[in-house]
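Issue: copy button drops trailing tokens. Both records pasted manually instead:
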Amino acid sequence: MPEPPVALVTGGTRGIGLSIAERLARAGKTVVVNYHANKEAAAEALETLRPLCSAVVAVQADVAVPAAAQAMIERVLSRFGRLDILVNNVGPFLVRSPIDTTVEEWRYLLDANLSSAFYCAKFALPAMRRQKSGNIINLGSLNCETVRGAPTTTAYNAAKAALVVLTKSLARTEGKYGIRVNMVNPGFIETYATTEEDREQMPPSIPLGRLGRPEEVAATVGYLVSDEAAYVTGAIINVHGGLWS
């Protein structure tokens, strides 16, 4: 029997990332989850995923650092010999006006949300090209394909808007190698970071009247990496309950 496809999910030990990892494991993929520093969350994620994928591995790396991202990809390739799915899920958030955003915060938000996806894709693509197949999914943010002013989330929104350009550009350059590149934009999703205030104040603004669930984002990722989406590349899919449509 052929070896199962190998999927790497950055930021894959909590929240949306863990739900994506679970979805891929249930679909028969060998899953690798990346984490930055939280070893406890990584251990808990492995406990969750092992019943679904006995070969699951957690890899520590700060993917906003080029050398660390490269070492992570090389470790996956060394262990499994291939990489079929890359989910760029890392995306720290910051609520701060432009004038109050420090230079360090600006650089961090762009590096973690945008550059990390570029680094991981850059180092994964040679292997995918050799395989003549592959899937890259970038996680964006609410309606980031529509450029608008963001008075309190400028750095984050700038990074995610640029990620749209990266996604579409990679879709155009890599299609001839059998590699598909798409983007999923979550709306207000209930995760470990959701507060009671969020649960009270957000739903009334959402046409569907509720927060989204991580597994609903994961289901979209699962579709995009499946054979059912074999003719889908360069797509930007919003999972936002109709918010700002």
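Record 2 (pasted manually too):
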Amino acid sequence: MSHDEINRLAAERPDFAAIAAWIPKGATVLDLGCGDGSLLRYLKETRSVKGYGVEINDLDIVSCLVNGVNVIQNDLDSGLADFEDNAFDFVILSQTLQATRHTEALVKEMLRVGREGIVSFPNFGHWLNRAQIMAGRMPVSRTLPYQWYDTPNVHLCTLHDFEAFCRRCAVDITARSVMMGEREIKLLPNLLGNTAVYRFQSGI
């Protein structure tokens, strides 16, 4: 991957750089719902990680192979029984959390299979989403590009929702990055940030 390709990916997916900043070089990674393998490829180039992707879509499986990414075809909602306890340093769920049906069970499985978990998701609490709801419409934006009738998203949430979920499930949040585009948001993040990235571990 060239330097230009790395910069292009970072611009298109600002959560990639935020995720990479938390991962030490040479770490082992499992990327759930990995799509075409872009994140794993990015982490291989920037952090020299080793690992696998998990994906169900046939076309994305082919793209992973083209990208040189090790991929396993599996449905995330069926669990991670194929993987042993603590098999990876990090288990990542990037822009996929909102499309999972059994979220609590999957997060618990992430922390069984990996020593730490990382998720990124679109923040439903962003002011633009709130404004569209106030206008009587379901939000459509860069981070939520689907219409209500064709969206794969089943569990949209805000930063406050996710943090309450973690407290209820005995999950300790160890780091958070909230962004608007490539800019990190520190002031009023639940209102002004459109993408959230969390790092967490088991609190049990």
